[in-house]
């Protein structure tokens, strides 16, 4: 008996010592022990399907008592996950979901979720590199979020309408394949507030904080962070860039690349009215009204019966169905008011708060835009760049692509974006000042062709279940 008790006691002391060591190591990674204190739940075995977020409230929508007193970005919970392309092709990478505390536009504490990925292979010498990838979720339901759509055995995006996850996984694997850690925030928040830019920016910055402090990622103190996003993902990326100095100035962000930029939501409504993108823009109006109750009250008071029916039918849909339902609709005609409804005080005030360009990012920016963009018009992006470049300390490279449109540039602009990001993460200076370049197509730049080849190589590696990031395929 005595020997058994002593053995258990000794084993307990050893476990305690190990736990303390891990806590210290985890804290030393970035000056905190918070991450080490958060237990990591095991992944579900395949083929057990993950619960959709609406039925997984313990992780996605925990009681406020679990996060109200935490600091922005502080971890609430974590769990391992298995990721897959098209829900079935496994991605050979270490991955977790983290939930963390963030802040909405009213300054209230909210829960948020992100997916974090760690490349395979030994730790690379030099600074740690983390890319925050903001997905073009463009939806109004939690089951459309990337944290769910990227999981193995989730309902395929071809069925749910999360078409963004189907093609963005090809880009995400290239980031991990380059040897970079990646964090993918569900930047629309717990209410799926699509197009609510300041909210998305805060959730993105807090996701970087959470990834930084998540011990299993093993990020070092000399961390370098980049941000990337296109279209709806550029809403989060652009706002995170503008809010960085005010909201999270301690984050070592070295650059942000954004394309298809929704710089001015009001101008997007003007362009989409009675045009092909009206269904998608209506989804954005729904999303914004969830974060700005005054706009929701305005809509409930002034929408005609068709407008109320359309918004109700689009309330729980993902990107594909949002875009397909109600194209070429007279958006402004859904409001029972004379004149332009966007000119009334409430929508003018709310949409004015969503216009980018108030704060100039204090790190280099790559902005790329299709000149004939039929969703996010080029005019407001020109205006945004001019606003940034009025500051003599701004560093902006602006590329206008004249052969592409909104959807095709999402693909063609990725390789130039990852090449630009590689230089920032490698510590190469972008230089102070602004340059504007007009190109036929960004894909015709020979400097980016290697990145296109590696995009193909990383996805072939995915298809045959090779480890991503071991060895790294640099762009």
From TrEMBL:
GO terms for biological process: lipid catabolic process. The keyword Membrane does not apply. It holds the Pfam family LIP. The keyword Membrane does not apply. Residues 1-37 form the signal peptide. Keywords: Signal. InterPro entries: AB_hydrolase_fold, Lipase_secreted. Gene3D superfamilies: 1.10.260.130, alpha/beta hydrolase. One of its GO terms (molecular function) is triacylglycerol lipase activity. It comes from the Bacteria. Transmembrane segments: none annotated. PANTHER family: LIPASE 5, PTHR34853. This is Triacylglycerol lipase. It comes from Gordonia westfalica. The lineage of its organism: Bacteria, Bacillati, Actinomycetota, Actinomycetes, Mycobacteriales.
């Amino acid at each position: 008996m005595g020997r058994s008790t002593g053995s258990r006691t000794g084993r307990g002391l050893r476990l305690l010592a190990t736990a303390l060591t891990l806590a210290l190591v985890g804290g030393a990674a970035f000056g905190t022990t918070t991450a080490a204190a958060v237990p990591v739940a095991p992944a579900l075995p395949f083929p057990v399907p993950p619960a959709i977020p609406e039925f997984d409230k313990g992780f996605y929508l925990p009681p406020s008592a679990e996060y109200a007193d935490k600091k922005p970005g502080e971890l609430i919970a974590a769990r391992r996950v298995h990721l897959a392309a098209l829900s079935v092709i496994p991605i050979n990478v270490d991955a977790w979901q983290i939930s963390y505390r963030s802040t909405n536009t009213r300054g209230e504490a909210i829960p948020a979720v992100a997916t974090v990925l760690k490349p395979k292979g030994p730790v690379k010498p030099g600074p740690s590199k983390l890319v925050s990838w903001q997905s073009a979720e463009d939806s109004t339901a939690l089951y459309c979020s990337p944290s769910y759509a990227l999981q193995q055995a989730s309902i395929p995006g071809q069925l749910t309408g999360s078409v963004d996850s189907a093609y963005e996984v090809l880009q995400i694997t290239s980031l991990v394949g380059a040897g970079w850690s990646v964090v993918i925030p569900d930047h629309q928040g717990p209410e799926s507030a699509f197009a609510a830019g300041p909210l998305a920016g805060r959730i993105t910055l807090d996701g970087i904080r959470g990834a930084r402090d998540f011990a299993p990622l093993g990020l070092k103190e000399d961390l370098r962070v980049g941000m990337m996003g296109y279209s709806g993902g550029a809403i989060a990326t652009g706002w995170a860039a503008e809010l960085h100095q005010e909201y999270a100035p301690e984050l070592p962000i070295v650059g942000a690349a954004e394309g298809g930029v929704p710089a001015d939501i009001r101008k997007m409504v003007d362009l989409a009215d009675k045009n092909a993108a009206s269904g998608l823009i209506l989804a954005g109006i729904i999303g914004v009204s969830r974060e700005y109750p005054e706009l929701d009250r305005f809509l409930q008071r002034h929408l005609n019966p068709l407008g109320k029916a359309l918004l109700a039918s689009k309330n729980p849909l993902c990107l594909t169905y949002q875009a397909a339902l109600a194209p070429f609709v007279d958006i402004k005609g859904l409001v029972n008011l004379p004149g332009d409804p966007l000119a009334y005080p409430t929508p003018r005030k709310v949409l004015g708060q969503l216009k980018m360009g108030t704060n100039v990012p204090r790190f280099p920016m790559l902005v790329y835009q299709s000149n004939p963009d039929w969703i996010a018009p080029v005019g407001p992006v020109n205006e945004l760049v001019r606003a940034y470049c009025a500051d003599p300390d701004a560093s902006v490279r602006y590329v206008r692509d004249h052969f592409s449109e909104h959807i095709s540039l999402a693909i063609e602009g990725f390789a130039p974006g990852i090449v630009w990001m590689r230089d920032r993460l490698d510590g190469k200076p972008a230089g102070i000042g602004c340059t504007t370049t007009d190109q036929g197509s960004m894909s015709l730049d020979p400097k980016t062709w290697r990145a296109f080849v590696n995009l193909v190589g990383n996805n072939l590696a995915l298809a045959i279940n090779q480890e991503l990031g071991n060895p790294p395929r640099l762009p």
